[in-house]
């Protein structure tokens, strides 16, 4: 999906702030529904984004940026494409530009986080650490302005002195950015410290570009009219809301916030429809419930260990089942559209020795795997070590591996839930076809050199379950991924 290159307007806007673990796709869509004009994603680190591949997810109708470990780092959709701003954490101009070019066709704007005071950001020279290096700030922003088609903004905190703050923002303005968001607290201050409306106002009166006021949730913003009062008190062009929107995203509605139960159910529906990981969904719902966490519903939420259980806690069990069936049907339809991908890997399979086998960890000795047995046999026979080529099938994300030993290929016809398990199955086919021991319990065979067992082979469940904060619980990426190898919080800062 392509966004036109017209600039995003930052005048007189209500904006959802970037918030760690909160600003994922369901929350952004919910904020748009309730009246936000612009939504920021959570801060995403440049180094992590540069490892990602852009993937069109046909099942969810989204664009996903997927890390090598198969986690969805950033997910977006057409509904928000003209109003979502991608915020990155960076300390390097060239990396920042590479990330901007990676995502620019799927977002409306690019923002650099220059205000996060947390150690995980500042220790890498990112976030608030940039405030003490104006030269680096200027280089990053100038590089982005010249190198990307999207409007560039940054988000800062105020410096210890107003004079230094004004000097910095004037220098930032000269880079050509479209707007600047100002959190009216110093680097060391937290939400319980009063926000400085006076400092934001002085910045707004100094600059000609739009100034976006941020930091008013604790002291000022309880409802829609408070947002307008905060904007007037700061003389800002627009207001960015973090915690108050996290507690109830319907705060953007002119007619007043909606009942929390209604808001939470709507959020859950988006979370299920867009395959948000249940732990992220649970976290956001807990932020909304706040003092109600000890209520019966809060306790059910606390106990939930899946999206289905969350839905059941809020009376949405039937919705979950219906949505899951719809996603499964879409997946099946797309698979049927490409029958050649369903039956075999996308390669010439002639001459491959095949068996219908799977690797069951429970049937093997604790310190031995078929891959270890095969590698040891190749060493004794002075053969080249095994080479594994693995493919991932579209939509159901199952894996199949082909192992090559002495120029002969071996493959299990059964697809498996992880790359490691598929490789073990291929090794079993090779060993059985040669009449060799494979390490099964009670099986006699030559001793192996002591080697560290591959931990992933112990896990017969979904490997993504170890990555709870990331989106992607039902359907990760409907595309063909190739792999080969030898044996071997919160605040909108």
Automatic annotation (TrEMBL):
<dbReference type="GO" id="GO:0005829">
    <property type="term" value="C:cytosol"/>
</dbReference>
<dbReference type="GO" id="GO:0010181">
    <property type="term" value="F:FMN binding"/>
</dbReference>
<keyword id="KW-0256">Endoplasmic reticulum</keyword>
<dbReference type="GO" id="GO:0004860">
    <property type="term" value="F:protein kinase inhibitor activity"/>
</dbReference>
<dbReference type="GO" id="GO:0003725">
    <property type="term" value="F:double-stranded RNA binding"/>
</dbReference>
<keyword id="KW-0288">FMN</keyword>
<comment type="function">
    <text>Catalyzes the NADPH-dependent synthesis of dihydrouridine, a modified base found in the D-loop of most tRNAs. Specifically modifies U20 in cytoplasmic tRNAs. Activity depends on the presence of guanosine at position 19 in the tRNA substrate. Negatively regulates the activation of EIF2AK2/PKR.</text>
</comment>
<comment type="similarity">
    <text>Belongs to the Dus family. Dus2 subfamily.</text>
</comment>
<keyword id="KW-0963">Cytoplasm</keyword>
<keyword id="KW-0285">Flavoprotein</keyword>
<dbReference type="Pfam" id="PF01207">
    <property type="entry name" value="Dus"/>
</dbReference>
<dbReference type="InterPro" id="IPR035587">
    <property type="entry name" value="DUS-like_FMN-bd"/>
</dbReference>
<keyword id="KW-0560">Oxidoreductase</keyword>
<comment type="subunit">
    <text>Interacts with EPRS1. Interacts (via DRBM domain) with PRKRA and EIF2AK2/PKR (via DRBM 1 domain).</text>
</comment>
<protein>
    <recommendedName>
        <fullName>tRNA-dihydrouridine(20) synthase [NAD(P)+]-like</fullName>
        <ecNumber>1.3.1.91</ecNumber>
    </recommendedName>
</protein>
<dbReference type="GO" id="GO:0102264">
    <property type="term" value="F:tRNA-dihydrouridine20 synthase activity"/>
</dbReference>
<dbReference type="GO" id="GO:0000049">
    <property type="term" value="F:tRNA binding"/>
</dbReference>
<keyword id="KW-0694">RNA-binding</keyword>
<keyword id="KW-0819">tRNA processing</keyword>
<feature type="domain" description="DRBM">
    <location>
        <begin position="370"/>
        <end position="435"/>
    </location>
</feature>
<dbReference type="GO" id="GO:0140374">
    <property type="term" value="P:antiviral innate immune response"/>
</dbReference>
<dbReference type="GO" id="GO:0050660">
    <property type="term" value="F:flavin adenine dinucleotide binding"/>
</dbReference>
<dbReference type="InterPro" id="IPR014720">
    <property type="entry name" value="dsRBD_dom"/>
</dbReference>
<dbReference type="InterPro" id="IPR013785">
    <property type="entry name" value="Aldolase_TIM"/>
</dbReference>
<dbReference type="Pfam" id="PF00035">
    <property type="entry name" value="dsrm"/>
</dbReference>
<feature type="region of interest" description="Disordered">
    <location>
        <begin position="438"/>
        <end position="474"/>
    </location>
</feature>
<dbReference type="InterPro" id="IPR018517">
    <property type="entry name" value="tRNA_hU_synthase_CS"/>
</dbReference>
<dbReference type="GO" id="GO:0005783">
    <property type="term" value="C:endoplasmic reticulum"/>
</dbReference>
<dbReference type="InterPro" id="IPR044463">
    <property type="entry name" value="DUS2_DSRM"/>
</dbReference>
<dbReference type="InterPro" id="IPR052582">
    <property type="entry name" value="tRNA-DUS-like"/>
</dbReference>
<dbReference type="GO" id="GO:0070402">
    <property type="term" value="F:NADPH binding"/>
</dbReference>
<keyword id="KW-0597">Phosphoprotein</keyword>
């Amino acid at each position: 999906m392509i966004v036109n290159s017209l600039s995003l307007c930052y005048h007189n806007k209500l904006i959802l702030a970037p918030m760690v673990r909160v600003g994922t796709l369901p929350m952004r869509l919910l904020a748009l529904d309730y009246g936000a004009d612009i939504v920021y994603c959570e801060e995403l680190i440049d180094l992590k984004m540069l490892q990602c591949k852009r993937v069109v997810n046909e099942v969810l109708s989204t664009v996903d940026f997927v890390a090598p470990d198969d986690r969805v780092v950033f997910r977006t959709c057409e509904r928000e494409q003209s109003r979502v701003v991608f915020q990155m954490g960076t300390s390097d101009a060239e990396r920042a530009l590479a990330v901007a070019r990676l995502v620019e066709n799927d977002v409306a704007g690019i923002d650099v986080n220059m205000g996060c005071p947390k150690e995980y950001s500042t220790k890498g020279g990112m976030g608030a650490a940039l405030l003490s290096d104006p030269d680096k700030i200027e280089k990053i922003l100038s590089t982005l302005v010249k190198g990307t088609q999207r409007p560039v903004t940054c988000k800062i905190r105020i410096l210890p002195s107003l004079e230094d703050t004004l000097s910095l923002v004037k220098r930032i303005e000269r880079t050509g950015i479209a707007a600047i968001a100002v959190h009216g607290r110093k680097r060391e201050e937290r939400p319980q410290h009063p926000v400085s409306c006076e400092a934001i106002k002085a910045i707004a009166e100094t600059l000609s570009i739009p100034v976006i006021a941020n930091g008013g949730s604790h002291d000022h913003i309880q409802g829609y009219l408070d947002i307008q009062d905060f904007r007037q008190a700061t003389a800002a062009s627009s207001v960015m809301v973090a915690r108050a929107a996290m507690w109830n995203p319907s705060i953007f509605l002119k007619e007043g916030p909606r009942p929390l139960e209604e808001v939470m159910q709507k959020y859950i529906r988006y979370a299920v429809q867009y395959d948000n990981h249940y732990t992220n969904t649970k976290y956001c719902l807990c932020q909304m419930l706040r003092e109600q966490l000890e209520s019966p519903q809060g306790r059910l939420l606390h106990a939930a260990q899946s999206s289905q259980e969350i839905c059941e806690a809020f009376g949405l069990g039937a919705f979950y089942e219906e949505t899951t069936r719809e996603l499964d049907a879409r997946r099946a339809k797309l698979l049927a559209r490409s029958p050649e991908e369903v039956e075999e890997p996308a390669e010439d399979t002639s001459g491959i020795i095949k068996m219908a086998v799977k690797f069951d960890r429970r049937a093997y000795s604790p310190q031995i795997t078929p891959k270890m047995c095969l590698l040891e046999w190749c060493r004794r026979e002075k053969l080249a070590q095994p080479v594994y080529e693995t493919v991932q099938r579209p939509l159901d994300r199952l894996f199949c591996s082909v192992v090559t030993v002495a120029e002969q290929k071996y493959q299990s016809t059964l697809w498996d839930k992880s790359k490691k398990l598929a490789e073990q199955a291929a090794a079993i086919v090779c060993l059985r076809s040669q009449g060799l021991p494979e390490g099964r319990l009670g099986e006699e065979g030559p001793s192996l050199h002591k080697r560290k067992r591959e931990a992933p082979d112990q896990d017969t469940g979904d490997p993504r379950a170890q990555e709870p904060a990331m989106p992607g619980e039902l359907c990760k990426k409907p595309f063909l991924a190739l792999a080969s190898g030898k044996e071997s919080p919160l605040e909108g800062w």
